[in-house]
Amino acid sequence: DAGVTQSPTHLIKTRGQQVTLRCSPKSGHDTVSWYQQALGQGPQFIFQYYEEEERQRGNFPDRFSGHQFPNYSSELNVNALLLGDSALYLCASSYPLGNYGYTFGSGTRLTVV
Amino acid sequence: ELKVEQNPLFLSMQEGKNYTIYCNYSTTSDRLYWYRQDPGKSLESLFVLLSNGAVKQEGRLMASLDTKARLSTLHITAAVHDLSATYFCAVVTGAGSYQLTFGKGTKLSVIP
């Protein structure tokens, strides 16, 4: 049973560029959340997608946007990259209510130079 | 604003010893999660605690939840080196919220 799959695993971008990260949820899950984890910190919630719509958003600027496709996979887009966007980006999938927990992917390590 | 505080942030313990990690949160919550993270790796789900007084155990780890005190504990019994990792608690608060709010994590090092 495939878990949560994220791609790419590592990425280096230049300030001002745009980046797209991808996530395929665990089989049977239809809800996808994105988190940003800076070095030495706990993950911070960016947003959650359900039924192809953003259901809840954390305290992140509009430069962070996302999309969910009919097959439940999701993309995270970040525009106008800043050095401070360097982090591990984690995707988590779940059933709609999350009572059975969230399954996290291995993450994408983004470095902005 | 919900705040989740873990202590200690760093813990070095000898193999065979017992210790407890504490997780306090600032507002009412109906779900609390514990995760483990190895260096450079993703988060591994350990426990989901859904009600006051809930206690769950897996191997040398036991988690409990006191919703009145807004406190969860992760107890480690007879630590072994393989338990070395960073442990996070995360809380979901409020009806209709789907956001996990994480503590800063407790970095555990078990010394042989």
Describe the structure.
The complex is a heterodimer of chains A (about 110) and B (about 110). Chain A is mainly beta. In chain A, about 0% of the residues lie in helices and about 50% in strands. Chain A is built from no helices and eleven strands. Chain A has strands at about 5, 10-15, 20-25, 30-35, 45-50, 55, 65-70, 75-80, 85-95, 105, 110. In chain A, the strands form two sheets. In chain A, strands 2, 4, 5, 6, 9, 10 and 11 form a seven-stranded mixed sheet that branches. Chain A has a four-stranded antiparallel sheet with strand order 1-3-8-7, with no helix packed on it. In chain A, a hairpin with an 8-residue loop joins β9 and β10 (about 105). Chain A is globular. Chain B is mainly beta. Chain B has strands at about 5, 10-15, 20-25, 30-35, 45-50, 55-60, 60-65, 70-75, 85-95, 100, 105-110. In chain B, the strands form two sheets. In chain B, strands 2, 4, 5, 9, 10 and 11 form a six-stranded mixed sheet that branches. In chain B, a hairpin with a 4-residue loop joins β7 (about 60-65) and β8. The radius of gyration of chain B is 14 Å and the shape is globular. The mean pLDDT of chain B is about 90. Classes of the chains: A mainly beta (about 110), B mainly beta (about 110). At the A-B interface, β4, β5 and β10 of A face β4, β5, β9 and β10 of B.
